[in-house]
Amino acid sequence: MSTTATAAPATAPTTVTPLTTTEAEALITAARRAAEAAGVTVSVTVLDAGGHLLAFRRDDRAVLISGETSTRKAYTALQLDAPTADLVDLVKPEGPFHSLPTALDRPLLFIAGGVPVHRDGRLIGAIGVGGGAPEQDHGFATAALQELSR
Length: 150
Prior knowledge:
The protein is 35% helix and 18% strand. By secondary structure, the protein is an alpha+beta fold.
């Protein structure tokens, strides 16, 4: 008696709409609005799922380094698919990622203010905010995500 194995029908992968430039601009606007309400000048970076720049804005009075930190925070959140606020302890001397920032030739920054952007459970980009205290930057980034989800 012979049996023939049949494969289950393949299901097509679910297509998720990528983060658009319009959405990136909306994230920038919402993060800046939250920062302005707190009296903080910031830089905001939005990256797509491939780590490419979709939008960037530095307030005129924001410290210059905030442009770099916002970009590195967004990149870190994207690469590790986690808010940078959740990663800070992992790079402390006793943490499991202690050597990660120097082991890679990538611009990772483990300071709160970077948050991944998801759609339908899939990673589609990240936002990074720099210029305020780390907890403020994280708050501005998460406020922007809440605005986008409306």
